[in-house]
Write a structure and sequence with these properties.
With about 675 residues, the protein is α/β, with parallel strands linked by helices. The protein has three domains: about 1-190, Rossmann fold, CATH 3.40.50.720; about 195-240 and about 270-385, no CATH class; about 390-655 and about 665-675, NAD(P)-binding Rossmann-like Domain (Rossmann fold). A seven-stranded parallel β-sheet has the order 3-2-1-4-5-7-12, sandwiched between helices. The protein has a seven-stranded parallel β-sheet with strand order 18-17-16-19-20-21-22, sandwiched between helices. Strands 6-15 form a two-stranded parallel sheet. The longest helix has 28 residues, at about 500-525. The protein is elongated. The N and C termini lie far apart (about 65 Å).
């Protein structure tokens, strides 16, 4: 790589230094700067990240002597730029653009403070030492905090509540520039930056993109003409990245603007509901013509709202909905964002330049298409003609896979498929005779398998099983917690049957948990492992009559989410499969299920194989995810639907202690309801 030392010095008016040059806005700004005659850009890059600048040079088609790397670190004094480089840059930099910052709603607060505040101070001090003619600080509308009303470009100290580390650190970073900068400065506050208005190009899911997965799911399962109830929400101001870069480049070169702040915002502000409808239109999804205004929620006392939100059921449903839709919990506070932004100074500075912010409707289709093709985490499986990057055979060849409840139904189907694909399958069940039958079937397929008799509901048996498996195989690569107990019985019929809850928890939660806890040490020691828990669609839909079963599965789901957050860096993956109703011996006692739609054990086995290949956080049917979303968005309506199903169906004779015979048919109402909500347990 060409070093800075020895590069010919020249007049500084067209020399720029840019932090964050390889970031999203930075890439487009650098492109604009290099379009200027006789311009040259010095880009701050961390050691080991030079390849990013090489990629940017290739993208822009510029030579190395026009886009030059300066090694440094945002967290060090003077950005960690060496004395030799500082001497070479002295009096050579005209415009110093500071774009580098952390914007991550889940980032550590201390990390944000070091990067956003101290990083700005270090950049400013470097600009002063180099004798730059102007320090251009790219702030954000976040510096206004949660200000109620219109925030003017000259306003700063009037900022509203800084209720988030990002809001606070962007405000404090701008304060550093305003109070401490010893050279001329200009501040720019872009609003919510989205992809390019001509290509849709975007680098990550952020802002309105958080809605896209929900919109996609609605498009998958409902026709676009179905009207939905939505929320009006707060104010969103959205700008495409090409407008921000163009405005930055132009205003930076307009004379006599030092000491001013410019809002790089759109003229039009949209409510959350309006943004949802704009993207629903381009995604061919249902729109929300009726939207609940924020004032309705404002009428509810604050302590009541906070109290309800803190209740365990509310928090659980919220976490479930957000996880399935790829929405970080930190984003929710911005759904009622109260601020609008005046952009008088920016528009005045851009006058005559031909640079205008386009309306969101004019490029929304491009944003949606780019997200679906490049950023949607499920894009591969949605492309019918694309092949998975890893096959099942490649994933399990020579791997040890342990499956509980492996002698019938889902477990047996999965064991046969995995053995055929080349895995060493450890089949676990209580009955030795059935174990031997399953072992014989696998051997006839040419697969390799070992059988272990154990009752997973007994914790001592779990310990013995794991001890024997580790002694004989050394490790387990994939654990499939499939063994389970289901009880279909109304709450009103369990008042004297507390053991229903104890039995389901003992096997579905404690037994599975015991196996996980005993196998995790060897997985973390090896730096790899995959735990797959077979859960239920009932956890997503809150199915009536399954309070004992769903509660036990929900407990395992909650443990899994916590553990996966802790062990992600250890190479251990967790997947929850929310199975719909499957034709297995477990549902045989409920004769009603002979007449309602179910999936086969083979189809369920395919879901397990798919989970092993892709290693997703969750595998669920569209109806399950939709039920989860509806419980979150319209809990009262969804509760009414579930209650209707509860009343249409009845407890079985077996659940009431009698002997049940297979009904010849079910009622028309029951048939229609079961078809409409295929896969849900009633």
């Amino acid at each position: 790589m060409k070093t800075l030392h020895g590069i010919q010095k020249r007049g500084r008016l067209m020399n720029y230094l840019v932090t964050g040059a390889t970031g999203f806005i930075g890439r487009f700004l650098v492109a604009r700067l290099l379009e200027r005659d006789d311009s040259r850009v010095f880009a701050l890059v961390r050691a080991g990240s030079e390849y990013k600048l090489d990629a940017l040079r290739k993208r822009l088609g510029v030579e190395e002597d026009r886009l030059i790397a300066i090694k440094g670190d945002l967290t060090r004094k003077l950005l960690g730029v060496s004395k030799r480089d500082r001497d070479d840059l002295k009096d050579q930099v005209g415009h110093f653009f500071h774009l580098a910052a952390i914007y991550d709603l889940e980032a550590d607060e201390n990390q944000q403070r070091y990067t956003n505040i101290e990083g700005t101070r270090h950049a400013m001090k470097l600009a002063e030492e180099l004798g730059a003619t102007c320090f251009h600080h790219v702030s954000s509308i976040a510096a206004a905090g949660l200000y109620e009303g219109e925030f003017k470009e000259y306003m700063f100290a009037e900022a509203g509540e800084l209720a988030d580390p990002y809001l606070q650190t962007k405000h404090e970073a701008e304060k550093v520039v305003r109070m401490e900068c010893a050279i001329p400065w200009r501040v720019y506050r872009p609003s919510m930056v989205v992809g390019h208005s001509k290509t849709g190009e975007m680098d990550k899911v952020d802002g309105p993109y958080y809605f896209f997965k929900l919109i996609q799911r609605l498009s998958d399962f409902l026709p676009p003409w179905v009207p939905l109830l939505g929320i009006e929400g707060g104010q969103f101001n959205i700008v495409p990245v090409d407008f921000v870069a163009a405005a930055l480049d132009h205003i930076a070169h307009v004379p006599d603007k030092d000491g001013e702040c410019f809002h790089l915002t759109a003229d039009e502000h949209y409510s959350v509901g309006e943004v949802m409808n704009i993207f629903a239109s381009v995604a061919d999804a249902p729109k929300m013509p009726v939207r609940v205004d924020n004032s309705l929620f404002a009428a509810v006392p604050g302590f009541v709202r906070k109290g309800m939100g803190a209740l365990p059921p509310a928090k659980f449903l919220l976490h479930q909905a957000l996880e399935g839709l790829d929405i970080p919990e930190g984003a929710l506070k911005f759904l009622s964002y109260p601020t609008t932004f005046d952009n008088t100074h920016a528009k005045s500075a851009l006058e005559g330049s031909g640079i205008d912010c386009p309306e969101l409707e004019s490029y929304a289709q491009l944003l949606w298409d780019y997200w679906e093709n490049h950023l949607d985490p499920d894009r591969d499986e949605r492309e019918d003609e694309s092949e998975p990057s890893v096959t099942l055979e490649e994933r399990v060849e020579g791997k040890v896979v342990m499956i509980t409840g492996a002698t019938s139904g889902i477990g047996k189907a999965a064991a046969l498929k995995l053995a055929r694909a080349g895995a060493t399958v450890l089949v676990v069940a209580r009955t030795r005779e059935k174990l031997e039958e399953t072992l014989h079937e696998i051997e006839r397929l040419g697969g390799k398998a070992y059988s272990y008799s154990a009752d997973v509901s007994h914790l001592d048996d779990c310990d013995r099983l794991v001890e024997q498996v580790l002694a004989e195989h050394g490790h387990v690569d994939v654990l499939v917690n499939n063994a389970g107990r289901s009880i279909r019985r109304s709450v009103v019929h369990t008042y004297e049957r507390f053991h229903d809850f104890e039995r389901t928890m003992q096997l579905n939660y404690f037994g599975a948990l015991r196996l996980i806890m005993r196998l995790l040490p060897s997985m973390t020691e090896r730096g790899s492992g995959h735990v797959i828990n077979i859960s239920s669609i009932g956890v997503l839909t809150n199915a009536p009559r399954f309070s004992a079963y769903v509660a036990s599965k929900a407990a395992l789901d909650a443990f899994t989410r916590c553990a996966s957050s802790e062990l992600a860096h250890e190479g251990v993956r967790f997947t929850t499969i929310n199975m719909p109703l499957v034709r297995t011996p477990m549902i045989a006692p409920t004769k009603l299920y002979n007449h309602v739609p179910t999936i086969s054990p083979n189809q369920a086995g395919d879901m397990i194989c798919d989970a092993i290949v892709r290693q997703p956080k969750r595998v669920a049917t569209g109806l399950g995810i939709f039920g989860q979303v509806m419980h979150f968005l319209t809990p009262k309506v969804t509760e009414t639907i579930m209650n209707t199903g509860y009343k249409i169906f009845s407890d079985s004779a077996a659940a009431l202690g009698g002997k049940e015979s297979t009904p010849k048919k079910i009622s028309r109402e029951q048939a229609a309801f079961s078809r409409l909500f295929k896969g849900i347990h009633w």
